[in-house]
Amino acid sequence: MTGEGRLLALVATQDRGAFHLLYDQYANAVYRYALSILRKPHLAEEVLQETMMAVWKGARHFKGRSKALTWILGIARNQAHSLIRKEAKGQRLPETDSSAETRDPTRNLHVDLCVQEALETLSPMHREVMHLVFYENLSMREIADMLGIPEGTVKSRMHHARQAMAKELT
Amino acid sequence: MSICQTVQDWMPWYVSGHLEATKMGRLARHIDSCEACQKELAHVIQLRHQFALAVDATPVPIDRVWDVLSPTLDAPKKARIDVGSFLIGVHFAIAADNQRMPVQGNLKVLGHKVQIIGRRKKGA
Ligand SMILES: [Zn+2]
Fold it and tell me: Which residues of A touch B16 (CB under 8 A)?
């Protein structure tokens, strides 16, 4: 079993110390992935909380067939989509816009604001794939398994995402 | 689809080194001899870098979420006993805290919900 698998096995025994370690290791990835789908910080925060609670309660279901990262991101994805459904049904009150929180150019002066703006124009499914490829470094197979789509679809979503970005950036 | 298009569609994974050795070799040989693909490769590398910087610039409320999450981890487990499923039209479920004794539950008789709240133990 890999180190990450061992960590999840410890979490499955309700080891709080192991859970805290796991949280520190994956919270960034979960939040940023959720934000790539939802674009609203307060929703991404909710997804982070719900995902980590689901991991705490369900770590025993991790069978090691995938990387711990893709297993956890898969849970985050389900949580994000369930929030989208709730929002669409009007079951949630909209929160005040905190987009200033998502884009803080002073945090990293090297960030090209054009890239941020171009990213906002991508559709959620294109932004999601681009995030998994460029930020999480996942292989085509891993993304296909996580999203439950054929590898060819991953490739074509990435193709369209790049085309859309190129259009925005020229 | 042209060879260049095929090569360029694989490029994001070529850059991250996620392709098998033979495919990597084939792509490398084509890119080496094709100016258009060299240009596109430079674009992909640049975009990947800018994308990562943009994502890294996003603040993550790690501590705030942990502060909310952490106290909820020790929530008392509920013991569920389902005793009514063998009666037609009657469903009875009760739940009791580990620490305290009050019994809470609900009784469903032919679809009508009747809430049951047990007596609290003295001093609870
Ligand atoms: Zn070419």
Answer: 133, 137, 139
